[in-house]
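Why do we care about 3D structure at all? Because function follows from shape, and shape follows, mostly, from sequence. That is the central idea of this module. The next example makes it concrete: a single protein chain, its amino acid sequence, and then its structure expressed as tokens.
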Amino acid sequence: MSARFGLYSSLKRRPAEESIITTTARCDVLIVEDNTVQCLEMADYLRRANLTVESAFDAATALGSAAKFEPRVVVLDYNLPDMTGVQLAEALRALLPSTAILIMSGRIDGLSEETLQALGITVFVNKPVPLGPLRQAVVKLVEASTKGENAPKAKGWLSTGTGGTRQ
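And the structure:
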């Protein structure tokens, strides 16, 4: 009985600096979508491409996850319950300047290419999200990031590879 207590006591007193659990780990993709079914469907589809994926259903959770996991790519909804995708993109850009950001929405009232360019948005995706092209774009962006490249400078709507211009 005392051997168990001695082991428990030594584990209990272990300093935080010696923790054997890593508290930060980089992920490939962070999906921010308030529709749980759509979010989980996209996450599952991207995981099939051997990507590590984290999910958040609101902006506040997304910011915490972004700080913890430092995603290479963020796919975020424009209409979130606690802020807009533009507001979240601004906060994410300040936190993760080299991360590729994709915004998706079915409604884009007031969202222009100038706004996307000013925020450094890599790609805009119209909903319903085409999962095949989305996965191709995300994989290309993750591969570029793992080679040490920053988010691509070319921005646009998801239509040709990792984005094209909307005409």
